Amino acid sequence: MKHITTTLKLFALLMVVVGFIYPVAVTVLAQLFFPEEAGGSLLYDSSGDLTGSALIGQPFSDPKYFWSRPSATSGYPYNPLASGGSNLGPTNKDLIGQISNRTEILKSSGIRAPVPSDLVEASASGLDPHISLESGLVQISRVAKARNLDEETLRKLVLEHVEERQFGFLGEQRINVLKLNLALENVK
Amino acid sequence: MTAMEIFFDIGVMLFFLIVLTLLIKPLGTYMTYVYQGKRTFLSPILVPLENLIYKASGIKQDEEMDWKDYAKALLLFNSLGLIVLFLILLFQGILPLNPRGFPGFPPDLAFNTAVSFVTNTNWQAYSGETTASYLTQMSGLSVQNFLSAATGMCIAIALIRGFTRRTSQTIGNFWQDVTKSVLYILIPISIIAALLLVSQGVIQNFDPYANSSLLQSFQTQDGQSINNQILPMGPVASQEAIKEFGTNGGGFFNANSAHPFENPTPLTNYLEILLILLIPFSLTYTFGRFTGNTRQGWALYATIMMLFTIFLGVMYWSEYNGNPIVQKLGVTGSYMEGKEVRFGIGGSVLFAVSTTGTSSGAVNSMHDSLTPIGGMIAMLLILLGEVVPGGVGSGLYTILAFAIVAVFIAGLMIGRTPEYLGKKIEVFEMRMSVLIVLTSGILVLIFVSIALVTYAGISSILNPGQHGLSELLYAFASASNNNGSAFAGLNADTLFYNILTAIAMLIGRFVPGVAALAMAGSLAKKKYIPPGIGTLPTHQITFVLWLAVVILIVGALTFFPAMSLGPIVEHMIMNAGQ
User: Fold this and answer.
1) Same domain, A96 and A163
2) Nearest-by-Cβ selection for A18 from B143, B195, B211
3) Distance (Å, whole) CA A170 – CA B320
4) What is this model's ipTM?
């Protein structure tokens, strides 16, 4: 019996500490020191409208944009309310069919084989904002043609948008597709 | 992949493991001081708060408990946690901080989720971004992230006291152990970690979901025009920190640590992996420090680190080799299905080994899409009983049970008296150790068999053939061992799986836990026997290797048939290109 009252009191106190005080304290500190990051790294256009988050990918299929990775989110690609991967196993015929189809589409859009894997294989989150440098480079000629731009100008733009390994050694070299495409809109 | 990339990956992994190892002694020492009630640098701030909590709850500081009392308190505390969380989930719809107006969880899902978070499993049959309100996340689920981790640590510390006390009836005071775990260890590091995560882009707010336009609108296959994106928000970083640090693993979002709002950069990725491994590895040092012989702790560390490195190597090799079927289609580069570009193969594999070797179960890649051998390593790490290095606390008491089994078998083989740390190992300790070591394995085999012969069991499978068997095996391995990760293709939100996995989680958590406390009580009563010529030394390389062999034999013999039918056959099929 003694244990029961102690349980009730201690649980209630610890719940207040870790379930309310702790998250609220972290929120206050986060909003104080890193307001943009805490708010979702949101991107706004010149008229102040929300155009996305630097961390969340968007789907592109128009030849005049650089394309993101395939996304397996349910409903439609890059649906942030349904984050997740395809969960298809490596020998699943559906997966092989999908990768084969995507490879064909990329080839017919003017990309010569071999195709970089991240452009035909779905990400884990379905919201991956990045592609590899190779995947950026192989799309230059298509985008250049669609926009009537010089390939060399685009190449420079792509290289400007390369994010190197963090501190020079952590993670992978990558390109943020949304940021690259937003910059592309301003190239004359 | 080029030789340069392999060089980078291996270099970063080595660097990471060195950093981890360097942190073990400071954190292990700190935890020793905390549980021994010594002063630490945080005492000036925390002692008043601690005393206030004791006073308000009627906890007497000088009162100790025998093992039965300790177990009763622990079970009561966890039962209350289960009830409160269940009610929060059920009535979420009428509770505040619910900007999306999510309804309450259905009863079976609420039960499954409540059990899952109380048992430190964090198996998730729901998607956070479309199911759980901010209140549910931070004041329901996240509370259990703290308390279930603290519970595991209490059991481990009680068992350590069993070894270090002589002819004692008591093994500590649960109320104090749980309070100290939360106040001194879990909260301070979680605050620092959460802020580091926010600085990199992990979100922390109570804003409504943001509605953003898309740069390029598009049409779905059924002709629906999509021109905007709803960006989920919430107090993510505070939950992310304790999710990793308490080896909980339950993601704020469905994609878990693959989600850019949970794990946006390579730095957050390695920080999260570090948080997952810190307490389980450091507790080996705490163990050595408590027993007065740190070499005993380093021997456990060596066993664990050896197994960890081997499994890491095999999974890296398998993921690096990728999928030959896809390579034949004219695709170049690493196998990226279910992986994120910013982490690459190295950051994904290190995360996968760490999350399955501990009982975390957070994921930054989709384990269902790993190569067959990669997926098998993840599953094997879980099936070994979560000892490489296992969950916070649960890992230590499980590996101590393995050590007792190893000492006993060695004693039988070479005619030495079975003793561990000066305590005679007798029938009762062996019974409890076997219970700790085998409970989860027995659960897995029984539950997988049930699932395989029922329609409700097999109808949830996503992938056909061998991989489907792996999905089932992984689900019950994960639940019984309180891991919580999944081959997520399995449709787990059904009445069948919600109830069965909940039962597996409960038995897999509390039967070994109470057995460890019973063993602690029995050991504490024993006299100390100084080591003689008949004593097997347990801090030398021979014992380290022997312990590893015992762990592998128990795991491999129990599951070799199932592994052969699932991942091993699939590996052969994949390499034959079919």
Assistant:
1) yes
2) B143
3) 18
4) 0.97
